[in-house]
Amino acid sequence: MELKGHADSVDQLCWDPKHADILATASGDKTVRLWDVRTGKCSQQVELSGENINITFKPDGTHIAVGNRDDELTIIDVRKFKAINKRKFPYEVNEMAWNITGELFFLTTGNGTVDVLSYPSLVTLQNISAHTAGCYCIAIDPTGRYFAVGSADALVSLWDLSEMLCVRTFTKLEWPVRTISFNHDGTYIASASEDLFIDIAEVENGRSVYQIPCKAAMNSVEWNPKYNLLAFAGDDKNKYSVDEGVFRVFGFETP
């Protein structure tokens, strides 16, 4: 199925955590759209002020957070599909995530910090100095114990959510970490970059258990919410050096 409607690149998408048939997309055409995959049609859309690059759902499915190239954060009310809050940052902001309860909002920054905001006020509670280079991506462990941060320093750091302290780092990658994801029960973490493999490590001891070879830099890795299946997409080119536009899934048993 192809979902058509955006007039520019679709930079990120996310599934509605409460409705398995609904997904939201953030695009360079300034719109955020909601899609019903049963019909393949766009059910809602809203135009924001800039080129959208990051998007995430609140765990209860009521709000969507969107970040744009101008370092502006917008909160969308899903029911009305209107922007209800905005905050502009004077520095680079990248991926963001809510904690499991939706009371805390985490924002990765180009300064190497993770900003912890209260929600819904978006008041800054804490700036965690997480890495020596910019922080690009963040993932929240589905059990609510940890969050993980991927950085331009090629490290993935694991943080205790209740203490806000770093527990360990994952060091297998050699290039800036572009994307990270916890599996459904929080036992594994996948991370990827311009290295030609995806690293899968055990969360509790940091041990690398598998590396999935790939032919190009990876842009996105995402575990299935129920099974140990990992979807991944990257800059794969075909023999004519044109973007292949393919994503793959790892973890099916060989028949």
TrEMBL record:
Cross-referenced SMART domains: WD40
Keyword list, A-Z: Repeat, WD repeat
Domain of life: Eukaryota
InterPro entries assigned: Tex1/THOC3 (IPR040132), WD40/YVTN_repeat-like_dom_sf (IPR015943), WD40_repeat_CS (IPR019775), WD40_repeat_dom_sf (IPR036322), WD40_rpt (IPR001680)
Annotated GO CC locations: THO complex part of transcription export complex
WD repeats: 3-45, 128-169
Single GO BP term: mRNA export from nucleus
Signal peptide: none
Pfam families in UniProt: Beta-prop_THOC3
Xref: PANTHER family: THO COMPLEX SUBUNIT 3, THO COMPLEX SUBUNIT 3 THO3
Sequence similarity: Belongs to the THOC3 family.
Protein name: THO complex subunit 3
